[in-house]
Design goal:
This protein has about 220 residues and is α/β, with parallel strands linked by helices. It contains 5 helices and 13 strands.
């Protein structure tokens, strides 16, 4: 959405621009954003508000809070339909869908997304350095991600009932002191949004360690 440059470029070219903002950026679940030059540690919605304020300084720019639900080509350009029934026309159209994360269906996970269940060690790892960390396996690359996460702290790879890595990958994990937990995870538990334990089938108590599943590779839909 507002992470793209076209609105600013067009505004500085003295073109008429309309930005439609649905107000649901991917990082809205996090308290702070990191790794964005000049915005490190800032709150996601505050970053967007600042970007909008800067964009609105240009007299040819119009910003709208809303959602585009349809677009079609018409003579001379495009027609965009909004959720509130309004229709806009334009000669050029930039589609900035962003990314939507598709989370595993594990009770307790969604409400902790962006808090204690995270997707990027470079974005969030510094704050959790040295703590017990975990990677929830959701795809073949999860084992390789566990090797990466081990740079931030002692790591457990939760196979979640999935396929066990081959001997070569297991050897690499062992060299990095990454432990493997094969059981299927049925729920995430903890006070508030913090995560203190995971529940697995056949156990009357949570998994007996304090590992925090800080990272997982969620499927993403562009």
């Amino acid at each position: 959405m507002l992470g793209c440059l076209p609105p600013f470029i067009s505004a500085r070219a003295r073109r008429s621009v309309c930005v439609i903002d649905a107000g649901a950026p991917r990082n809205r679940f996090a308290d702070t954003s990191h790794g964005f030059f000049g915005q490190d540690g800032n709150e996601p919605h505050a970053m967007i508000a600042e970007a909008l304020a800067q964009l609105q300084r240009y007299p040819t720019v119009r910003t709208m809070a809303g959602e585009a639900i349809g677009a079609s080509a018409v003579v001379g350009g495009f027609e965009v339909k909004l959720a509130d029934g309004e229709t806009l026309t334009a000669t050029k159209l930039v589609l900035a869908f962003g990314i939507s994360d598709i989370l595993p269906d594990v009770p307790g996970l969604a409400e902790r997304w962006g808090k204690s269940v995270l997707h990027c060690p470079y974005c969030h790892g510094f704050e959790y350095g040295g703590q017990r960390l975990g990677v929830l396996q959701t795809m073949p690359m999860s084992a390789h991600q566990a090797l990466l996460i081990a740079d931030w702290g002692p790591t457990t790879l939760y196979l979640n009932g999935g396929e066990v890595p081959d001997a070569e990958v297991r050897a690499k994990l062992a060299r990095r002191d990454v432990t493997i937990e094969p059981a299927q995870i049925t729920a995430l538990h903890g006070k508030g949004i913090a995560l203190s334990s995971l529940r697995v089938p056949g156990l009357t108590a949570p998994l007996p360690n304090s590992s925090v599943v800080r990272w997982m590779m969620a499927h993403s839909d562009r």
